[in-house]
Amino acid sequence: MSPDYAELHCLSNFSFQRGASNADELFARARRLGYRALAITDEATLAGIVRAWQAARQHQVALIVGAEFRIYQGPKLVLLVEDLAGYQRLCRLITRARGRAEKGRYQLLEDDLREEGCDGLIALWVPDDEDDATPGRRLGELFPGRLWLALELHRGPDDAARCERLLGLARRLLIPVVACGDVHMHARGRRALQDTMAAIRHHTTVAEAGHRLFANGERHLRPRDALAELYPPKALAESLAIAGRCGFDLGQLRYRYPHELVPREHTPASWLRELVEKGMLERWPEGASTEVKALIERELALIHELGFESYFLTVHDIVAYARGQGILCQGRGSAANSAVCFALGITELDPTRINLLFERFISKERNEPPDIDVDFEHERREEVIQYVFRRYGRHRAAITAVVSSYHAAGAIRDVAKALGLPPDQVNALADCCDSWSDRLPSAERLVEGGFDPASPVLKRVLALSRELVGFPRHLSQHPGGFVISEAPLDTLVPVENAAMAERTVIQWDKDDLDLVGLLKVDILSLGMLSALRRCFALIERHYGRQLTLASVPAEDGPTYRMIQNADTLGVFQIESRAQMAMLPRLRPKTFYDLVIQVAIVRPGPIQGDMVHPYLKRRRGEEPVSYPSEGLERVFKRTLGVPLFQEQVMELAITAAGYSAGEADQLRRSMAAWKRHGGLEHHRERLTQGMLERGYDAGFAERIFEQIKGFGSYGFPESHAASFALLTYASCWLKCHYPAAYACALVNSWPMGFYSPDQVLQDARRHGIRVLPVDVRYSAWDCSLESGRDGAWGIRLGLRMVRGFRQVQAGRIEAARAEGAFNDVAELARRARLEPRALALLADAGALRALAGNRHRARWAVAGIEAQRPLFASLPATEEQAVPLPLTNTGEDLLTDYATLGTTLGPHPLRLLRGRAELRRCVDSRALAGLEQGRGVSVAGLVVGRQRPGTASGVIFVTLEDEFGMVNVVVWRALAERQRLALVESRLLRVSGRLESKEGVRHLIAHHLHDISALLDGLDVRSRDFQ
Amino acid sequence: MRWACILLPRLALDGVLRRHPDPAAPLALVTGASQRRVLHAVNPAARALGLRPGQSLTAAQALSRDFTIHAYDPRDAERWQRLLAAWAYRYSSQVSLHYPCALLVEIASSLALFGPWPRFEARLREALAALGFTHRINVAPNPAAARVLGNAHDGLAVTSQKALKDVLGALPVERAGLPRDAVEALSRMGLRHLGQVLALPRATLTRRFAPEVIRHLGELLGEWPLALESYLPPDEFDLRLELNFEVSSHQALLFPLRRLIGDLSAFLAGRDSGVQRFTLELEHVKGTPSQVPVGLLGAERDPGLLFELARGRLERTRVGAPVRAVRLVARELPPFAPERRELFEARPQQSQPWEQLRERLRARLGDHAVHGLGTVGDHRPECAWQPAFLASAQVDDTRPRPGWLLARPIPLDAEVAGILAGPERIESGWWDGGDVRRDYYLIETRQGQRAWVYREVGGDGHYWLQGWFG
Question: Which of A252, A274, A289 represents a domain boundary (last residue)?
Answer without folding.
Answer: A252
